[in-house]
């Protein structure tokens, strides 16, 4: 009789533990701010590559697109794409990028999109944690 009460209690405790662990993992989510500076005249090619291919490939490699922006500054608006990705953790981000870089479809898309010259001149990446008052966690 006692055993019949203990098993469900242990199951509930395990379930609660798993739920708390899941919350802990969600809180470890890391954001990555990336800024791409294109070679002159190549921003439209970069935007097309993201729009038509890259974002879908990101999804397959657990890279969540948060948003994409073009600066309002007249000069930077000609050559700059800024975007934010979310990863489960910094370690996962390294793994995600490694797998993305090795993806055969990505390699093909990158090669085809650069048939008329290299698109990206410089990439800057900053990993970020939300501040405790941030609406985005």
Fraction of residues in helix: 40-55%
Distance between the termini: 45 Å
SS-based class: alpha+beta
Q: C-alpha Rg, in Å?
A: 21 Å
**What would you call the shape?**
globular
| Strand order across the largest sheet | 2-3-1-4
Stretches with pLDDT under 50, minimum 5 residues: 13-26
Give helix and strand order, one letter per element, not per position.
HEHEEHHE
Count of domains: 1
Mean pLDDT: 87
What is the CATH topology classification name? Alpha-Beta Plaits
Number of helices: 4
The CATH architecture can be named as 2-Layer Sandwich
Give the beta-strand count. Answer: 4
Q: Please report which band the strand proportion falls in: under 5%, 5-15%, 15-25%, 25-35%, 35-45% or over 45%.
A: 15-25%
Main sheet specs = 4 strands, antiparallel
* Assigned CATH class: Alpha Beta
Topology readout:
Layout: H1 2-27, E1 30-38, H2 43-60, E2 64-69, E3 80-87, H3 90-102, H4 104-113, E4 120-128
Antiparallel strand pairs: 1-3, 1-4, 2-3
Helix pairs in contact: 2-4
């Amino acid at each position: 009789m006692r055993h019949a009460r203990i098993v469900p209690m242990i199951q509930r405790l395990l379930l609660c533990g798993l739920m708390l662990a899941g919350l802990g993992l969600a809180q470890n989510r890391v954001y990555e701010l990336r800024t791409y500076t294109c070679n002159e005249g190549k921003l439209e090619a970069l935007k097309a590559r993201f729009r038509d291919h890259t974002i879908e490939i990101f999804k397959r490699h657990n890279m969540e697109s948060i948003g994409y922006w073009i600066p309002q500054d007249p000069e930077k608006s000609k050559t700059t794409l800024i975007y934010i990705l979310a990863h489960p953790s910094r370690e996962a981000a390294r793994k995600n990028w490694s797998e993305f870089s090795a993806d055969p479809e990505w390699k093909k898309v990158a090669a085809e999109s650069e048939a008329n010259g290299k698109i990206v001149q410089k990439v800057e990446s900053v990993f970020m944690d939300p501040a405790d008052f941030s609406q985005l966690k």
